[in-house]
């Protein structure tokens, strides 16, 4: 009986597993594997050694990492409170029939491609149009925060939808009980609702972390593979693309590209693991 | 008297909430409207008053005409459609089969497979691009629709499976037992319960299409040839060449965004359900 069940299970899950293992898992493992090679010759840690000690390469890697951190911190600290605020307004019970209307419109930027988002905002803030006089994208100090805010604008809908669903799933009797006890809307939100949806806030934060450290599109769409001014918007994703594919006079190198990807993978892995080991576990406990 | 006061207070509170939400909606939609407005203007109109509505002097449909006449545009549109629909169909089919298997044959192995897919949702597959490119070169799949379809199915299938598992769990076993007693084999039983999880299928389809249509990374690496270029990549290159044809450029951006905005507006319920169910598990 169990054998028959196992056979059925394997038959039904085979296509999905095959696609996932061949086109997602294998390439990731393969990437780690070939990062120890150079032109099909095993070279040990030489590629990593180059990335971390070569004067130019290590500088690029370090700054790309720093820019990713900046991107993540700005994105998380702007996006989360805004999304939470909108989700709170949508679930406040004061919009009723209009809820769907607002929710749909607020999500629309997330359905656009980064190419369109980049273009729209570059045009709007272009000094050519005169709405903004200052060349936000042209100055080293403002370029990265500006791009990050464009990305926040685009993807705000995703945490919004998450938090909206989380707030909706709070049992209404808890809220009613608090209201009968005379708690204000404000108090209910911060004292009851936020603690209850803390796990979802955690998940969306870690997803933002994974997506920003794996991010590439918006920077590439705006600034290409050598993101200026003077690399000030270079992130790990664009560095990976450049190392692997080359850009302009830079020759690409597959194995160095694989090594760069491996470094990024471990940064993401460490960040995620650290998060689940500390924060999320505590959240789960407090949930009980 | 007191009750009336309360009602006035509630109403003014409601109004504040509406105003705040309208402000956010304006922030979200305003920039898009600016581009849509300008797609109906001549180049002169675009630069003389970017925020003005088109008037009799600046109104022009030339941009749309030139965008569509550009030979690549229609072909790119078609390429994106084939790739998106192909990958979505395969993802849905594979996800349904796997989710049925996982919920129906509950063994240790089944929960291990489910765990594997749960981790898979968060996997940054783009970091495996070097090997994906090598594979595609080896199988002579570079610059084919199939190369993108295969990769996208691999990326999207974990979320699809997990979403469908939550859907198949809600199906009562009575129907399945009845089908089996009637002599249906396992696959037939699967087909009999499939209509019950159609809302889930819609959610998986909606959530799969969006990132595929908008992806820039894999088209940039796997399908750069003009025959298989996707719309997103085509527009990126159009933007990149510093064209002077602003009318056609803005028009093609608008045309490129329409399918997904339309799709999302129609299926926003399924989409939002898919998004929140899939990642919060």
| Shape assignment of chain B | globular
Q: What would CATH call the homologous superfamily of the largest domain in chain B?
A: MetI-like
Number of strands of chain B: 0
Helical segment count of chain B: 14
H/E order of the elements of chain B?
Answer: HHHHHHHHHHHHHH
What's the gyration radius of chain A in Å?
23 Å
Tell how many strands the DSSP assignment of chain A holds.
4
CATH class of chain A: Mainly Alpha
Query: Terminal Cα separation of chain A, in Å?
Result: 38 Å
Mean pLDDT of chain A: 89
**Alpha plus pi helix count of chain A:** 13
Would you tell me the structural class of the helices and strands of chain A?
Answer: mainly alpha
Q: How much strand content do the residues of chain A show?
A: under 5%
Q: How would you describe the oligomerization state of the chains in this entry?
A: heterodimer
- Name of the CATH class of the largest domain in chain B: Mainly Alpha
Q: Write the CATH fold name of chain A.
A: MetI-like fold
The count of domains of chain B is 2
Strand content of chain B: under 5%
Count of distinct structural domains of chain A? 1
Low-confidence segments of chain A, ≥5 residues, pLDDT <50? none
Can you tell me about this structure?
- The complex is a heterodimer of chains A (288) and B (281).
- Chain A is globular and about 70 Å long.
- The longest helix of chain A has 36 residues, at 55-90.
- In chain A, a hairpin with a 2-residue loop joins strand 3 (246-247) and strand 4.
- Chain A is mostly helical and 288 residues long.
- Chain A is built from 13 helices and four strands.
- Chain A has helices at residues 2-34, 46-53, 55-90, 99-107, 114-124, 140-155, 157-168, 172-180, 185-196, 198-213, 217-223, 236-245, 254-287, and strands spanning 37-38, 41-42, 246-247, 250-251.
- By secondary structure, chain B is an all-alpha fold.
- Chain B has two domains: 2-60; 71-279, MetI-like fold (Orthogonal Bundle).
- Chain B has 14 helices and no strands.
- Chain B has helices spanning 2-39, 43-48, 62-69, 71-104, 108-122, 129-138, 145-169, 173-181, 186-193, 198-214, 217-222, 231-240, 246-266, 268-279.
- In chain B, helix 8 (173-181) packs across helix 9 (186-193) and helix 10 crosses helix 14.
- The interface between A and B is large, with 90 and 91 residues.
């Amino acid at each position: 009986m169990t054998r028959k069940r196992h056979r059925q299970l394997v038959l039904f899950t085979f296509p999905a597993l095959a696609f996932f293992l061949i086109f997602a898992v294998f390439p990731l493992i393969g990437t780690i594997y070939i990062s120890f090679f150079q032109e099909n010759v095993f070279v040990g840690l030489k590629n990593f050694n180059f990335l971390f000690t070569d004067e130019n390469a290590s500088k690029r890697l370090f700054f790309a990492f720093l820019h990713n951190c900046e991107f993540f911190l700005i994105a998380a600290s702007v996006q989360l409170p805004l999304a939470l605020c909108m989700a709170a307004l949508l679930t406040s019970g004061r919009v009723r029939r209009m809820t769907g209307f607002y929710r749909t419109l607020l999500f629309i930027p997330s359905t656009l491609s980064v190419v369109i988002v980049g273009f729209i905002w570059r045009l709007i803030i272009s000094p050519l149009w005169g709405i903004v006089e200052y060349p936000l994208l042209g100055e080293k100090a403002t370029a990265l925060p500006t791009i990050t805010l464009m990305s926040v604008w685009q993807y705000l809908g995703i945490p919004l939808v998450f938090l909206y669903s989380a707030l909706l799933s709070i049992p209404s009797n808890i809220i009613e009980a608090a209201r009968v006890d005379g708690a204000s809307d404000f108090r209910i939100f911060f004292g009851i609702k936020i603690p209850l949806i803390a796990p979802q806030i955690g998940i969306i934060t870690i997803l933002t972390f994974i997506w920003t450290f794996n991010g590439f599109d918006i920077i590439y769409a705006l600034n290409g593979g050598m993101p200026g001014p003077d690399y000030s918007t270079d992130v790990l994703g664009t560095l990976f693309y450049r190392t692997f594919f080359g850009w302009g006079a830079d020759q690409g190198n597959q194995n160095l590209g694989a090594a760069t990807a491996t470094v990024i993978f471990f940064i993401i892995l460490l960040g995620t693991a650290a998060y689940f080991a500390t924060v999320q576990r505590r959240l789960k406990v407090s949930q009980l | 008297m007191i009750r009336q006061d309360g009602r006035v207070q509630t109403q003014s509170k409601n109004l504040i909430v509406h105003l705040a939400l309208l402000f956010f909606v304006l922030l979200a939609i305003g920039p898009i409207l600016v581009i849509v407005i300008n797609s109906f203007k001549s180049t002169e109109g675009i630069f003389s008053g970017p925020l003005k509505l088109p008037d009799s002097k600046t109104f022009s449909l030339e941009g749309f005409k030139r965008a569509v006449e550009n030979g690549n545009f229609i072909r790119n549109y078609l390429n994106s459609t084939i790739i998106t629909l192909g990958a979505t169909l395969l993802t849905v089919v594979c996800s349904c089969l796997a989710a049925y298997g996982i919920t129906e044959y509950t063994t240790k192995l089944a929960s291990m497979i489910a765990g594997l897919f749960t981790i898979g949702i968060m996997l940054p597959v783009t970091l495996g691009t070097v090997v994906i490119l090598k594979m595609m070169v080896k199988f002579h799949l570079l610059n084919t629709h199939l190369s993108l379809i295969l990769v996208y199915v691999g990326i999207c299938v974990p979320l699809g499976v997990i979403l469908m598992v939550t859907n198949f769990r809600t199906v009562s076993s009575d129907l399945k037992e009845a089908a089996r007693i009637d002599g249906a084999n396992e696959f037939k039983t699967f087909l009999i319960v499939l209509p019950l999880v159609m809302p889930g299928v819609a959610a998986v389809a909606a959530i799969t299409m969006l990132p595929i249509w908008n992806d820039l990374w894999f088209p940039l690496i796997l399908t750069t040839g003009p025959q298989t270029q996707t719309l997103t990549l085509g527009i990126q290159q159009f933007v990149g060449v510093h064209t002077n044809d602003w009318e056609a450029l803005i028009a093609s951006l608008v045309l490129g965004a329409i399918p997904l905005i339309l799709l999302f507006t129609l299926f926003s319920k399924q989409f939002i359900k898919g998004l929140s169910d899939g990642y919060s598990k």
